[in-house]
Amino acid sequence: MPKNAFYAQSGGVTAVINASACGLIETARKHPDKIGKVYAGRNGIIGALTEDLIDTSQESDAAIAALRHTPSGAFGSCRFKLKGLDKSKAEYERLMEVFKVHDIGYFFYNGGGDSADTCLKVSQLSEKMGFPIQAIHVPKTVHNDLPITDNCPGFGSVAKYIAVSTREASIDVRSMSKTSTKVFVLEVMGRHAGWIAAAGGLASDAEHEIPTIILFPEVQFDQAKFMAKVKENVEKYDYCTVVVSEGTKWPDGKFLAEAGTRDAFGHAQLGGAAPVVANMIKESLGYKFHWAVADYLQRAARHLASKTDVEQAYAMGKAAVELALQGKNSVMPTIVRTSNNPYSWAVGSANLSEVANVEKMMPGDFISEDGFGITPACREYLAALIQGEDYPPYKNGMPDYVTLRNVAVPKKLTTPFDVKV
Amino acid sequence: MPKNAFYAQSGGVTAVINASACGLIETARKHPDKIGKVYAGRNGIIGALTEDLIDTSQESDAAIAALRHTPSGAFGSCRFKLKGLDKSKAEYERLMEVFKVHDIGYFFYNGGGDSADTCLKVSQLSEKMGFPIQAIHVPKTVHNDLPITDNCPGFGSVAKYIAVSTREASIDVRSMSKTSTKVFVLEVMGRHAGWIAAAGGLASDAEHEIPTIILFPEVQFDQAKFMAKVKENVEKYDYCTVVVSEGTKWPDGKFLAEAGTRDAFGHAQLGGAAPVVANMIKESLGYKFHWAVADYLQRAARHLASKTDVEQAYAMGKAAVELALQGKNSVMPTIVRTSNNPYSWAVGSANLSEVANVEKMMPGDFISEDGFGITPACREYLAALIQGEDYPPYKNGMPDYVTLRNVAVPKKLTTPFDVKV
User: Would you say the ipTM is above 0.85?
Assistant: First the structure.
């Protein structure tokens, strides 16, 4: 009897994480001699710990195929980080217990840096416990911060969304600038790195000039310099767009978003960086402004996904199964850039020991010298990732996203396990 | 010699106002015996007052055709309302002077309620001054508040954007609700009427159930009732989506967005309704939340335009010229709903005297009894307007929006005119 596989989605979901699930399950279904059933964790790794497994064999081929065009995490995800083997010993032992009783031979974990680390530990522990499991990490993160791989599935689609939205809102403001709005501020995700903010720089190109100022978390916010730049743009173009990362910080290390804003009752408000920046421009320069906070809209926007991103996400799921079938363990499939212009890529792989706990930051030469824009090298890197459109099917004017049945696998263990979330 | 035409865009721009310009200019070009050149006002009516006219005959057929898929206002718009003939006498006289010297026989004004009123006055005054101009209003407003016409071009695309974005972000939150975000709050436009907020109700349907609470400007905000509803949804579904109109008000008539928020220096902040609602949920119920403010993204999102909306916007521009050629004056082409399911529509027309200064509010039977949702009648009305997709062409992964040359018509008047904006 072939071993079963376990698959879980981890951390913040994306527009294309289900495309990886699709690639993984469709490929596994082609090898019934090697892989039994694919069980998914309901709400990620918590589903494994609580023995709440989903039997994906209960889903039709059509439903699995529809995952390719459905954003969000179809099986549920979670923010739950397993710590080191010493601190989270009970959790790891429980995982082994659940995997053993459900005859799991393959552990596929679809996530970012934290889940790569968990994946590595599962592999190490399973060997030590005499119940070897092939652990394969499937890369996913809108934050694009995994090492070795050229980029991370999920990021390309957010980048496309931010680039397109910035272009659209900017030409709207350009229309209105004579009598009304002169500055538009868009807040984007990325608490630690400016990858997503950088994508705002793609709104402007040789044929579509748009005065854009980007505020990166990598660059200490210099209010006077920023105001001078806004003023310069408005005087030259009559309008200006600002893309601010939620991770932009004051010189004292505080986030712009933590501007000490209080409501009428004196309660501290969790504001956003965009209104802080907009209000500061209004006060200092008097310009009319509008601001937007894209938040989850940016990472869920499957309607505007990058075709490149969808294909890479699918390829990573497929490659994960292929690596498993080749007997690989403790690895992650990667995207290898083989050419820049035209962009081409191939599938590679990396050892998890080189992936876990390594964060890839933006290269220093991707941010322009004044700190407010992207360099040609950055543009070339990013432009490749937003190529192509891959529209979901529509029904009655709305995207027809699939909701799976998510049928539970009967429990076999009698001991409950308390997960402290 | 045929008379020239003047065209101007007024007020907030939309994803499809340029489609109306496209329909108008393309149709005018087919009748060179009746219509000379089409001059556009640079930055709307201000361009007429300052004799800053754009010669659209300098644009290629391809550039004009590209207007159909380009959001924003290609000639610039403005927020500048002409008052009554008594108060704004100088402005109206100046308009006549400019129109006369440029041999304008047709006045096409593309806007909402205010511009319908201006259009009517131009027609009345031009007759009185012995220089008759046919004034035709071309409907446009994301606020959907013009009377007589079934709907207003611009609205259908915003509705589609809000419906799709709400569905996408909601299923994202659903994936995360086990350990993380339980409530997602999306702020949408609509200071006076809840048409756009209502579109959030389309995110949920028979096949895609999404617990959605809508906060309408038409319904006085009842904090206790709202909290109870959020709690009920989260307890039942483990998550909940809130679509809040920027126009939602406290019982004392103040906007939610004016929550008295102050920054660290005590300055009043122009916040948003979404963070106010999100913080209130956090404090009262303790749920983790995320919030987004779509702002200009929603009205500029040509990448997700409703095909129905694009076709209607184009048809309104085309019909405006056809009405002019039929000798009509002081009219506005309208959209007439001829069938609901399947939706079909025809072009009609209305007298401006019946359009000017009349605001169409949401019918009372469009809001559900509890005040938090839409009725089946509202769903049927809205669903028709978001039918079909009409994607812009892409180049290098980005929508290829046109920027016109906007060549100025040589000035003929020697007197400058000071517009107080």
Answer: yes
